[in-house]
Amino acid sequence: MSYIFLQRQGLVSGIHEATLALGFAMGSLAGGLFAWLAESLADLLPTMLIQRSPYLLAVAFSSVLLVLQTWMYRARREEIHGKRGFLR
Fold it and tell me: Which domain holds residue 63?
């Protein structure tokens, strides 16, 4: 393997790790903020919902990303294989 390939591979690996770390940090901060906001609405929300609010935020965010990835996959598949699609 060439030196440039290894150097690029290291850069890409570093970007990937930084993205994961940023996702963990932002997820923790957003979950805590969401729990704090839910706690401020304690008189309107049941206690069980307040305690699970960070998890509900994670489920909602993951669901949105799942729909987005499915849409992007289907659009790309139609672009490559035509309107009829592949294995449809």
Answer: 3-81
